């Protein structure tokens, strides 16, 4: 009976809260697709200074925005004005890096560079509990029913109960930078051990493993029974989960650079940034290139898709939007500092942090 109840919660977690952007990449399958379209013309609504550098990607739930910042803070902002509602000090020594908050119920979860997972009251900013792993955390939490899933540079994937106790931990053969993608009761991570692995959420048993052939920092996007992600061998891979085989590989014919950005998948296309300064669009079925958009520096930011447009930040200090079908650039905004965080889209707003320590909110012009 307990297993049936947990299975129901897992299914609910994979489908609930579609109007919000409650976690890194927006949904459990890590598709990077917003539930609603942004206005066709965007302007800067507000910006808020919250720290030294913002590499964490925001979560948007209702009228609140949650984001981590380099001095070691988790910050809650009012979505309408950017006013700071509360600040929670996570790490005095190492800070919060790329780990991005995940919101579930009345709690916000985030990891820090000291290797600690934090659960914080979403309304007040008061800490509820912490859990210490063996090394730094750059992975973002993923919520699956009553479990909080996260990777650590100590080489493990952790599943924590909502009260902060350990449900299980599963060993890999290298640091886990990737954020888990959840599909049909399995958590998938693409690891620095050059493997794509799947762990059963109920008990942590490894039920899937296939070689990627290269170090991988990107998180997998789930689409049509496949996991899609880029590697440091300058490739994008699509792995069929049933056959456990790589069904296509993409490499740019001329520019050989790693893919750090995590893919977005929408309308039969895959979108991701490269350290070759390009935003790439690929056919999701075949992996063939459809178009590229050139920026002025590498793209570590992971794109988000909304209303037929692809939004992404670049280390050139700009935000870009491209038409998802043609690749034509339709919008650009100069922030003036590198943007390695990824866009969050909900409530008619696009929210992103930059390395100038500010969070930027764009909406209807």
Structure description:
The chain is mainly beta. It has one domain: Methylamine Dehydrogenase, Chain H (7 Propeller), CATH 2.130.10. The protein has one helix at residues 2-15; strands at residues 42-49, 59-61, 64-69, 73-78, 84-89, 102-104, 107-111, 116-121, 127-132, 142-144, 147-151, 156-161, 166-171, 181-183, 186-190, 195-200, 206-211, 221-223, 226-230, 236-240, 245-250, 264-266, 269-273, 278-283, 289-294, 304-306, 309-313, 318-323, 329-334, 344-346, 349-353, 358-364. The strands form eight sheets. It has a four-stranded antiparallel sheet with strand order 1-32-31-30, with no helix packed on it.
Search tags:
365 residues, mainly beta, four-stranded antiparallel sheet, Methylamine Dehydrogenase, Chain H
**Considering DSSP H and I runs of 4 or more, what fraction of the residues is helical?**
under 10%
What structural category characterises the helix and strand content?
mainly beta
CATH architecture: 7 Propeller
Gyration radius (Cα, Å) is 18 Å
CATH structural fold name? Methylamine Dehydrogenase, Chain H
Count of DSSP strands: 32
Tell me the distance between the termini.
Answer: 52 Å
What is the CATH class name? Mainly Beta
Mean pLDDT: 94
Major beta-sheet overview? 4 strands, antiparallel
- Count the helices. How many? 1
CATH superfamily: YVTN repeat-like/Quinoprotein amine dehydrogenase
Number of domains: 1
Strands of the biggest beta sheet: in what spatial order? 1-32-31-30
**What does the oligomeric state look like here?**
single chain
User: What shape does the CA trace take?
Assistant: globular
């Amino acid at each position: 009976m307990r297993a049936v109840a947990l299975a129901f919660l897992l299914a609910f977690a994979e489908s609930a809260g579609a109007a919000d952007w409650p976690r890194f990449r927006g949904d459990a399958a890590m598709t990077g697709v917003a539930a609603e379209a942004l206005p066709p013309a965007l302007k800067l609504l507000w910006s808020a200074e919250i720290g030294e550098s913002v590499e964490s990607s925001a979560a948007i739930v209702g009228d609140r925005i949650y984001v981590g910042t380099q001095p070691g803070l988790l910050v809650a902002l009012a979505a309408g004005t950017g006013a700071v509602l509360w600040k929670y000090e996570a790490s005095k020594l190492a800070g919060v890096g790329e780990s991005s908050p995940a919101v579930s119920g009345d709690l916000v979860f985030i990891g820090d560079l000291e290797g600690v997972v934090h659960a914080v009251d979403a309304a007040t900013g008061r800490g509820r509990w912490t859990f210490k792993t063996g090394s730094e955390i750059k992975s973002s939490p993923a919520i699956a029913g009553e479990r909080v899933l996260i990777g650590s540079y100590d080489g493990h994937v952790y599943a924590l109960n909502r009260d902060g106790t350990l449900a299980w931990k599963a060993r890999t053969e290298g640091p886990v930078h990737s954020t888990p993608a959840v599909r049909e009761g399995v958590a998938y991570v693409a690891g620095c051990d050059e493997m794509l692995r799947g762990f059963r959420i109920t008990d942590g048993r490894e039920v899937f493993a296939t070689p990627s052939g290269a170090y991988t920092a990107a998180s997998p996007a789930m689409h049509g029974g496949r996991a899609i992600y880029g590697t440091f061998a300058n490739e994008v891979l699509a792995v069929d989960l049933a056959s456990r085989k790589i069904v296509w590989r993409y490499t740019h014919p001329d520019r050989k650079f790693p893919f750090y950005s995590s893919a977005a998948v929408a309308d039969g296309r895959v979108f991701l940034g490269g350290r070759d300064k390009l935003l790439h669009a690929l056919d999701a079925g075949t992996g063939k290139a459809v178009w590229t958009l050139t920026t002025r520096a590498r793209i570590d930011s992971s794109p988000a898709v909304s209303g037929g447009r692809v939004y992404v930040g670049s280390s050139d200090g700009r935000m870009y939007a491209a038409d998802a079908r043609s690749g034509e650039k339709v919008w650009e905004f100069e922030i003036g500092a590198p943007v390695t965080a990824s866009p969050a889209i909900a409530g008619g707003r696009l929210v992103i942090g930059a390395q100038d320590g500010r969070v930027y909110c764009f909406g209807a012009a």
